[in-house]
Amino acid sequence: MTAGAVLVAAGLDALLAEPPARVHPVALFGRLVDPLDRDWGRPRAVGVGAASLLPLLAAGVPFGLVLAASSVDPRAGAALAGLVLFSASSLRMLLGAARRTIVESESDLAAARESLLALAGRDAASLSAGQVRSAAVESLAENLADGLVAPLGAFTLAGFVAGVAAPGLALPLAAAAAAWTKAVNTLDSMFGYREKPVGWAPARLDDVVMWLPARVTALLLALAAGRPDALLAARRDARAPPSPNSGWPMATLAHVLGVRLEKPGVYDLPGGGDYPSVADGLRALGVTAFAGVVAVAGAVGLLWGVAP
After folding, report:
1. Torsional sign, CA 287, 14, 99, 113
2. What is this structure's pTM?
3. Nearest to 212 by CA among 270, 157, 294, 285
4. CA 279 to chain centre
5. In this predicted structure, what is the pLDDT of residue 308?
6. Residues 6+ apart with CB under 8 A from 23
7. How does pLDDT run across 118-148, given as a tens digit for each residue?
8. Is the CB of residue 191 less than 8 Å from the CB of residue 215?
């Protein structure tokens, strides 16, 4: 049933891309935690409490719902678990947003700078067309890890372990793991900045949670491109970004494409001499899409192996 839930999530992503914003669980979670973004007397203590408790709350709700649905009909539990995973992950929307920015960068730079805001949190007003494409390619790599591999990996790992040890809990635990992981990532994306002391604990927790998914994503990108050597080359550059994790998929994709990826004043990933061309950007889309398909297929295969 857990393998079927992954297929449900993948099918919904292909058909719908995202749940409606007004009912999107991640958006609802964001609105719930937004009041934390203010001055606190002990901001780090507040951040530790938020990082400890809020992801557990986000995981507890789908755990209870999927458990209840599974007790009525395992197929209903699988469908609901698939809906949870769909809400916690995204591939089609990432590919669509990146494609729009890459294509616009050739004919309408102002529009490309504007559409980049949906992908990368940086000031795009002074970026050249090549730098805009660089940011889009970087976002493809980083968001593949954050938006697909991490929640899918958590779902798969929890489902696999529970499928061996406690099959009756496989679906609710898998859904809870995906929701917990997405909540951790959402807290980091909202508060994990140096100017926000409350975000120290969420950022450190996200660093730990994303350690393995970032490196698995780098491996998937290298394999999807048929360039395992790119992963080895990326080891030299992966520490350039301030994040301990995001440099791995970004540097790997830079070497796969043979291009330079740069966030001016922050890091430079010299996979090649020039910024990505439009053709490079479109190739990055294909590699990212194939890597996502491989991730889903691997999860289904692994979970199918422990199906009762």
Report:
1. negative
2. 0.94
3. 157
4. 24
5. 57
6. none
7. 888 788 888 999 999 999 999 999 999 999 9
8. no
Residue 290, both tokens: 């194939």
Contact 3, 304 (CB under 8 A): yes
* For helices 74-88 and 43-72, angle between their N-to-C axes, nearest 10 degrees: 150
Contact predicate 56/177, CB 8 Å: no
Q: Where are the alpha helices (DSSP H) in 89-246?
A: 92-107, 109-116, 129-144, 150-165, 170-191, 200-209, 211-224, 228-234
Specify the pLDDT at position 123.
83
Pick left, alpha or beta for residue 226 (phi over 0 → left; psi -120 to 50 → alpha; otherwise beta). Answer: left
* Cβ-Cβ contacts under 8 Å for 278 (sequence gap 6 or more): 102, 103, 105, 106, 133
Q: Report pLDDT digits (tens) over 56-72.
A: 999 999 999 999 999 99
Total residue count of the chain as it appears in this document: 308
**Which amino acid makes up residue 12?**
L
Going 275 to 102 to 86 to 300, the CA torsion angle's sign is negative
